[in-house]
Amino acid sequence: MSADTKKVVIYTAIFGDYDNLIDPVSTDDDVDYICFTDGDPRSDIWQIRQRSAHLPDDPVRSARVYKICPHRFLSGYDFSLWIDGNMRLNKTPNVPAMLRYGASLAMEKHRKRNCVYDEAEICIDRGLDDILNIRRAVIACQAMGIRKDTGLWASYMLARKHNDPDLVRLNEMWWAFVQAYSRRDQLSIPTVFNGYQIEPIGRNERSKIATIKKHKK
């Protein structure tokens, strides 16, 4: 079945040799599995789409553009499921069914914290991004009126009806925020998607779909 007739794609992106590509445990013939990468991983399941790094000196952000903007690269599909490169797909879920109550975006809630400002301090303490970038992201959040305890999301799995015009607009805003401020999703999502309907994916549901492994780097 060609991509033109398939409605669902599961995809990931690995740049800068940051992760080892992990083959899914099981697959569905009605779904495509695509990996965008600047490397040369081998797989009998993933379709390898080799691309030059969007930002050669920043492999994390180079992968982020594929994560954040599937409408640019996968517009021929109606639904997509993003998984981070360090995840093993245990089964192929019914992606449209994950988008309940008319939602176009679903992801798991952060299970440890609920505040973007607390998350910023954790990111600084753990050296997860440049301190200046994080501080600038915090200032942007404050300027946009983001309050404490407005919620955090874990974005290692994203189910989307990615061609939805409102979601396309927000995904482009998300990418602009990541380029201008911090690369940390937990700092950008609460700001860009403030007030937008996100369908929660339960942790048990997510763990049945995919297992998180350690990053290679």
> Biggest sheet: strands side by side, in what order?
3-2-1-4-7-6-8
Straight-line N-to-C gap = 36 Å
The share of residues in helices is 25-40%
Number of strands: 9
- Determine the number of helices (DSSP H or I, runs of at least 4 residues): 8
Shape: globular
Rg over C-alpha atoms, rounded to the nearest angstrom: 17 Å
Total discrete domains: 1
CATH topology: Spore Coat Polysaccharide Biosynthesis Protein SpsA, Chain A
Structural class: alpha/beta
Quote the average pLDDT.
92
Estimated share of beta-strand residues: 15-25%
Major beta sheet summary: 7 strands, mixed
Poorly predicted runs are none
Q: Which architecture would the CATH scheme give at its second level?
A: Alpha-Beta Complex
CATH class: Alpha Beta
Helix and strand pattern: EEEHHEEHEHHEHHEHE
